[in-house]
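Sample A.
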Amino acid sequence: MFLFSPQLRARTGSMLVLLQFGLLTALGVLALPLVLQGQVAPVSWVLLALSGLLGGWTLLHNRLGNFNIHPEPKAHGVLVTSGPYRLMRHPMYSTVLLGAAALASVPHHWPGWLLWLALLGALLAKSMLEEHWLREHHPQYAGYCARCKRFVPWVF
C-alpha cells in the first residue's frame, strides 16, 4: 500500500477522508428521525459525552495549527505524545468512532452498526497511511508506535 507515489498516496488519503465523512453523514441520516422524536437511548448519550470529552482533551494537546483532517502530516507539524496521545496514537479517530457509535446505537438496528464497521475500516486504513507518513517525518515515531496502541489504550 505504501510503495506507490506521493501523489497517489495523497489521492488515497483524500478518498479516505471523503469516505469517512460520507459514512458519518449516512449514520446521521439514519439516526436523525429518532433523534427528532426524542427516542435516544441513554447509552447513546454516554457515548456522545465520552466522544466530546476525548475530543476536547485531544484538542488541548494537539493545537489546531498542528491538526489535520488529511492523513498527511503538516510540513511543520510537531509530534505530540502527551495527554491522550500517551495512551493512544489516534485519539481523534477514537473520538470519531465513539461519536459514530452514539449515532449507530440510536436506530437500534444493524444498518447503523454496518456503517460503523465500515467507518472503522476506513479509519484503520487512514491511520495506516498516516503512520507511514509520520515515520517519514518523525524518526522517533516508530518507537512511539511500539509502546502505544492505535485506537484503544492497552488493547488496539
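Sample B, a different protein:
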Amino acid sequence: MHQSHVVILESRRFPDITEQWYNVAVNALTQQGITHSRVTVPNSADLPIALRILLEIIHHSNDPNVRVPDGYLILGLNCDGDIAQENHHSIWDAILNLTTQAGVPASSVIVFEKEGQDLNHSATRYISKIQLSIQSLVNLMMLRHQLSGSPLTAAA
C-alpha cells in the first residue's frame, strides 16, 4: 500500500504569513498520515505557471523515481497594492482550469486582501480555511482512489 503524498505549492510574497499557513497545512496533513513536498514561487501570479510545469513534468514522466502526488494544495496571498483584484481572479481561474483539465485532486487557499488591511491578521484569519481545504483535498483523493480501485492510506 502506498502512503499518500501531496505537493504544497505556495507563493512566498509574504513569507511570514505563508510560513504560518504552510505549518498549519503540514500539521493537518501529518495528522492524516499524508507526506508532502514543497514547491515555492515568488508571487501568486507564478502559481498557475508553476502548477502547469509540475503537472506536465510529474504526470508525463517516464522516470520511475518521479513520484506522482495524490494531490496538490495551493496557497497564496494577494494584496491590493501588489495586484489588481481582477488579476487575482484570473490566477484563481487558471488554477481551477489546470487542475480540472488534468483531473487531479487539488484544493487551494488563495486570498485577496484590500490595501490597508492588516496582513499579519491574515495569518490567523485563514487557518480554519486551510484546514477545511485540506479536508476537501483528502476527500477528493479518497474518491479518486476509490474509483480507481487502489487503496489510500489516510485517515478519513
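Observation for Sample B: The chain has a mean pLDDT of 86.
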